[in-house]
């Protein structure tokens, strides 16, 4: 019994020593954190920090190779780095303003180009006609389409393409009808197509969609009325998206979005300078 008590006492002493060591390590960690914070707040006491021996012109050379985001992060290195960055910001603002001006000029050129190209009214009317055709599809038509155990290859190809348009993660492949049926089983399947934002289609989706040009509407009509309506819609979408006017208008929107972000950044940098 005495031996058992002695063993337990030794274990308690060992645990106590371990706990004391943990507390001591924690205290050392707090001391190190305090010292680092003190060094940042008091540059004069940081002789070991090589950053404080770097000349301002060297700092400038470093910042030349950084983008705006990295430059702003560089301010956190030290107080001296913060002041150096602050002195460089006017140049960064000037570069951004010059970029904005160039992009605004580019927008004007694109507007003139779009005006010379005429309009894409025919393509828009074609899309609207296709949408009207989709709205006339009945539930019975959808039921008939999805009831195919093995649909004609042409029909399966059309439905694969509309699934891809609705879902960019959808993978087109042979004998993929079961996956297609999951989309056809959605109660709002046709409504999803009608409400589709065609501007959201990626270049990759459009490239795959180009295969509709090899499908005849007459061939599709002989197999499925619903598939034919979907085919007409897909062709109309492709034609509108590839029209010169649409491409130019979309490029203008992207430039305007960039300018808006860059102007916000200019305003942000201006506030930092005047702090």
UniProtKB/TrEMBL annotation:
Pfam families: F-box, MT. The keyword Coiled coil applies. GO terms for molecular function: dynein intermediate chain binding; dynein light intermediate chain binding; minus-end-directed microtubule motor activity. Residues 107-210 form the Dynein heavy chain coiled coil stalk domain. Residues 57-88 form the F-box domain. One of its GO terms (cellular component) is 9+2 motile cilium. The keyword Coiled coil applies. InterPro entries: DHC, Dynein_HC_stalk, F-box_dom. It comes from the Eukaryota. One of its GO terms (biological process) is cilium movement involved in cell motility. Keywords: Coiled coil. Residues 86-120 form a coiled coil. PANTHER family: DYNEIN AXONEMAL HEAVY CHAIN 10, DYNEIN HEAVY CHAIN FAMILY PROTEIN. This is F-box domain-containing protein. It comes from Paramecium octaurelia. The lineage of its organism: Eukaryota, Sar, Alveolata, Ciliophora, Intramacronucleata.
């Amino acid at each position: 019994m005495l031996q058992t008590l002695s063993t337990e006492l030794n274990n308690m002493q060992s645990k106590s020593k371990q706990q004391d060591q943990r507390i001591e390590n924690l205290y050392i960690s707090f001391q190190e954190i305090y010292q680092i914070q003190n060094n940042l707040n008091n540059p004069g006491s940081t002789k070991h920090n090589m950053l404080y021996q770097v000349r301002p012109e060297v700092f400038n050379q470093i910042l030349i190779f950084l983008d705006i985001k990295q430059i702003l992060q560089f301010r956190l290195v030290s107080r001296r780095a913060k002041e150096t960055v602050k002195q460089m910001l006017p140049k960064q603002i000037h570069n951004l303003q010059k970029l904005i001006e160039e992009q605004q000029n580019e927008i004007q050129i694109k507007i003139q180009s779009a005006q010379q190209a005429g309009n894409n009214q025919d393509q828009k009317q074609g899309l609207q006609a296709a949408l009207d055709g989709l709205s006339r599809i009945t539930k019975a038509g959808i039921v008939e389409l999805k009831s195919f155990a093995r649909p004609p290859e042409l029909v399966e190809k059309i439905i694969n393409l509309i699934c891809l348009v609705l879902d960019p993660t959808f993978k087109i492949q042979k004998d993929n009808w079961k996956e297609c049926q999951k989309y056809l089983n959605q109660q709002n399947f046709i409504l999803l197509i009608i409400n589709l934002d065609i501007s959201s289609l990626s270049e990759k989706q459009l490239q795959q969609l180009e295969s509709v040009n090899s499908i005849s509407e007459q061939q599709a009509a002989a197999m499925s009325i619903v598939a034919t309506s979907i085919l007409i819609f897909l062709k109309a979408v492709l034609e509108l998206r590839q029209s010169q006017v649409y491409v130019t208008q979309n490029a203008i929107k992207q430039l305007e979005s960039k300018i808006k972000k860059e102007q916000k950044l200019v305003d942000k940098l201006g506030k930092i300078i005047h702090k």
